[in-house]
Amino acid sequence: MKVQVFIPHYFRELKGGNQYGSSRVASRTARSIALGRCLSALLNLRQKGMDLELNHNRRTIDELWGREATGAVPTEVAITVCKSGEDYLKEVTDIYRDQITLVDIELEDPKLLALATRDRLVQSEVETDLAIYLEDDLIIHDPHYFRKMAWFHQKTNHKMCLMPHRYERIDTDREARLLVDGPLRPSFIGKFSQPQRAIASGKYLGSENVVFDIAENPHAGTFCVSNAQIQFLRHQTLATEGFVGPLETAATLTVLQFFSVLKPSRNHRSFLMVEHGHPSFRSYTKSFPRRRV
User: Does the pTM of the predicted model rise above 0.85?
Assistant: First the structure.
């Protein structure tokens, strides 16, 4: 399987406050860690046919062929990081310079970098099975993430898109995660789609039953499209505004404009998740009232 990942990356500390973590004052270290974790996690999802083992006894490098019985298939992951000028974390991208492609896009307004990155993804002529847009602070832990996406596209005949649940770690005694993309106001999401629970179900790998909803909040900071969907999008006029701001428009409206967007239902949320590596929502757990659902 061939996977292309396009990441918009911007960092510049701005005084006066900003809703985006890429501009938050005194956040350079946290943002660097998030970007490094994002890139490292993607590289860990590469699947090759051989491992090497350091044999201390014989003082050799031993070649270990074959794969563990996880159903994994060889997976190539090409990573393109798009930046604008010198507003980026060079100390992080330099660490990965031999494993990523760093592209500079000239922009008068850096908030348009997300849309420009989206356009690069759609117009890329590199043959690929999956193309993924991913914000630079999202971490994929699931070793089956790409395979689950390919399975979903095949089962829905490339007519739908699947979004993960995005979460932030809480790590209290009773709570593990905060799912940050909960239901939107019906009056807002109704402009784009009609949410519906349990709209579809399927058995992943023939055994794990998963139920899917038309999402009440399709946003996740990422989207994944198949090669067939890329070919379709290439001939469409893609939205440049309309879903909150330019970042959300790039990550969500790009696909919501043309496809039904599903997420695993709440009871099946662990099927597909990504971590928000630079948390900005978990403070709400202390200010918003609790409600049992």
Answer: yes
